[in-house]
Amino acid sequence: MEKKIISINELTGEEILCIIHTAVDIKKNPEKYSTRLHDKTLLLLFQKTSTRTRIAFELGMKKLGGRTIVMDWQRSNFAISPISYEARYVGSMVDIVLARLLKNEDIVELARTAGVPVINGCCNLFHPSQVLADLMTVFEKKGGFDTRLTYIGIQNNVANSLFYACMKVGLPLIFVTFLYTDTWINMEEFNQRKKGPEQQKKIERMLAYQINRSLIQDRDVYVLHDMPVHPGLEIDDYSITCDKSLIFIQAENRIYSGQALLLHLLDAV
Description:
single chain; five-stranded parallel β-sheet; three-stranded parallel β-sheet
């Protein structure tokens, strides 16, 4: 297996399935894995905000017996020094790195020079750890990938990763069984007090594609969303909390799929 996961494209379909099977087993038998990463250290490096990725990997690493260091990019010397030199130092201190950075090229440079496995925890182009949890959720619910997934939203890092992941495991990214939506506005821009004309135009265009009660209540579908959710925009409250929603199971599965990825990258399965 490739010792860096910048995009899901670096994993084969067989490797993705192997990670999913491991994740399902961790969920069922956590005690079996409780010391697998004893004495290993994971650095969590964040240039952007995080809720699920941070909790999933920080808690997940500790439940595997390992340690974590959490670092804010802006409060470290990554903000003022060439990435390659900081990465080389970091790689001499820790066993594996998860980095959530603004630019894909910065993740690539970090992975090139760190000398230890690096996981892309989300950048402008890809979100590989998210789609492993997505596929795990579909696999758990259907017992495989003999179903269809419809992604409703803008082309973003999740959409890019889903495209490659679904292709590799043979899950058609078309038609309607599982409905998957995502935020229409990037996280970094969402809290701007005044939305610019481009954002307003995007919201107006996308409202016709909102997942809501009238769309799903009489259909045999499941709803996915990688969170954070914005009720009234890409989805309504009914679709978040109804019986058809797998959103919180999907979010919970971030920890198990993240643990499985750590184990595979550190040859500790």
